[in-house]
């Protein structure tokens, strides 16, 4: 009997492991086994976070934050770049200063990391690698911002942190201190950081105190709208690697509040009050998406939610949180823009609609759409993951900056 019990346990353990690791992976993704293991690791972490949260041991996001902690590296200079942690306008930043001689003023990139406004750090290995790579390839100053995170801080704190850093850096005295050309500054970010970069670029246009104009903005698979969480990309990629729909809903709602009523309303896509119905024109995918991304999905009119939620948490209707809600007139003066979208990503349609709206408003846009990639893919270029597609997109982004900044 003992042998039989052991065999049964082994069988169950193997079955559980196989269930965990085996995820149907889209056919056009390269290195499917690597993607499967990455997905399994993230899913395990998500389940652990769920359990810890339900048992009242740790907030969901605090458990996920352990990934950030595990990936942290101290600021370490090398032969190409001097790296230091400091503060700009009372906000923590990691600064990358190239050591190569420069025959004139340098370019600069102000970078905002991703992580759903709740996770991430400029000192995580992938972000540290990205900043060094950018600084070294462009001979540019990189300011990577450690804005404060949810659940401890909610909107607009994250936005205000990145905005005050950018505004501080754009002062002519600070630019000259770091030898930066005021005509060659960029804001960039991925995912939630792409959201913050887009919001910062919009806000700078309205700010009479800022004399220096951005040269470019670069948005890597950005989250740009809170209104419709049932876009074709949300439906099609509901359970795709790294960022399933319900996790994105959690990130969005946590950005504004830890009150679960907003999360529940967002999960059923019934959070926008009827008074805000005029905003849906800015995210109406039936008008804004190209035919090939509409697939066989049918656009249905929004189901409106309670006014009470929007009164309590007005942030989710604010263009500083949802840059796609800016009017066409507000998009007109934006700088040259790079948008990267990934096919297998709930946020795909956000980026596609923004690129289209910017083009219609006369803003020059380069839109790269990676058909063989999923959300956050540029984070997996180091260590055992070492995804080839991540490297390709990372190189493409840095090349674009090199040509346009």
How many strands, which pairing sense, and closed or not: the largest β-sheet?
Answer: 8 strands, mixed
Element-by-element helix/strand order:
HHHEEEHEHHEHEHHHHHHHEHEH
Radius of gyration: 21 Å
Instruction: State the share of residues found in helices, binned by percent.
Output: 40-55%
* CATH fold category name: Rossmann fold
Pfam families: Abhydrolase_3
Protein name: AAAD deacetylase
Keywords: Disulfide bond, Hydrolase
Family: Belongs to the 'GDXG' lipolytic enzyme family.
Descriptive overview:
This protein is an alpha/beta fold and 405 residues long. It has a single domain, classed as Rossmann fold. It contains 16 helices and eight strands. It has helices spanning 2-21, 32-54, 60-70, 125-138, 157-169, 172-177, 192-206, 232-236, 245-256, 260-267, 285-288, 291-294, 307-312, 328-331, 348-360, 388-404, and strands at 81-88, 91-98, 106-112, 141-146, 180-190, 216-220, 336-344, 365-374. An eight-stranded mixed β-sheet has the order 1-2-4-3-5-6-7-8, sandwiched between helices. β1 (81-88) and β2 (91-98) form a beta hairpin. α5 packs across α7. The radius of gyration is 21 Å and the shape is globular. The protein starts with a helix and ends with a helix. 45% of the residues are buried. The mean pLDDT is 94.
Summary tags:
16% strand; alpha/beta; globular; Rossmann fold; 16 helices; eight-stranded mixed sheet
Give a topology summary.
Elements: H1 2-21, H2 32-54, H3 60-70, E1 81-88, E2 91-98, E3 106-112, H4 125-138, E4 141-146, H5 157-169, H6 172-177, E5 180-190, H7 192-206, E6 216-220, H8 232-236, H9 245-256, H10 260-267, H11 285-288, H12 291-294, H13 307-312, H14 328-331, E7 336-344, H15 348-360, E8 365-374, H16 388-404
Parallel strand pairs: 3-4, 3-5, 5-6, 6-7, 7-8
Antiparallel strand pairs: 1-2, 2-4
Helix pairs in contact: 2-3, 4-16, 5-7, 9-10
